Amino acid sequence: MPEDRMMPNDALRLFFVAIEEVMGKDGIKAALHGAKLDQYIDNYPAKNLDLGVKFSEYGLAEQAIEDFYGARGARAMLLRVGRALFNYGMKEQSAVLGLAGQALKLMPLPTTSKMKLLLEQMAAAANKTVNQPTRVEEDADAFYLVVDYCMCQFRPRHQAPCCFITVGALSEAIKWLTDKNYAIQEITCMNLNQAECRYKIPKVAE
Ligand SMILES: [Zn+2]
User: Which residue ranges of the chain lie beneath pLDDT 50?
Assistant: First the structure.
């Protein structure tokens, strides 16, 4: 098990709000209980950026969603939670995130330039509001969001990359920006003992 890392309260709170949106009030209660995170039932972390919660707690909550729905059904639910997370993040935190919302969307720039700007803002937000080391890389065909410390390290070992919350959030972000679907994939994962969680965002839509 890696050394734990502190996370701003608001990051875990937003995650719980997104879970509640998808699973309902009773669903998140069951999930939090399953994750042995009973202290958060009807008592979400505060809406501030104090480093009051842990990456391991976020990972346990993620795992609880998977356990609740079973390995087969969980992927779709985790993707939905990720999409909800982006939408709440945009709504509640656009000032904090530095996401200039509609302004970015309407900029007269090529789509790939806007994608890069949005990904860079999301990476900056991950560093600032999640305390998660994140950066953007690029080659001819794709952008890559690269995460150097992830909550998936606190989940049981999977057979394949398992950070579907982030895949969902990225998919929703790019869909919001472009009104198109892009086949976003996690290609390496710290849960599999790889050095980083790396997400590939192709430059061309599906
Ligand atoms: Zn991960």
Answer: none
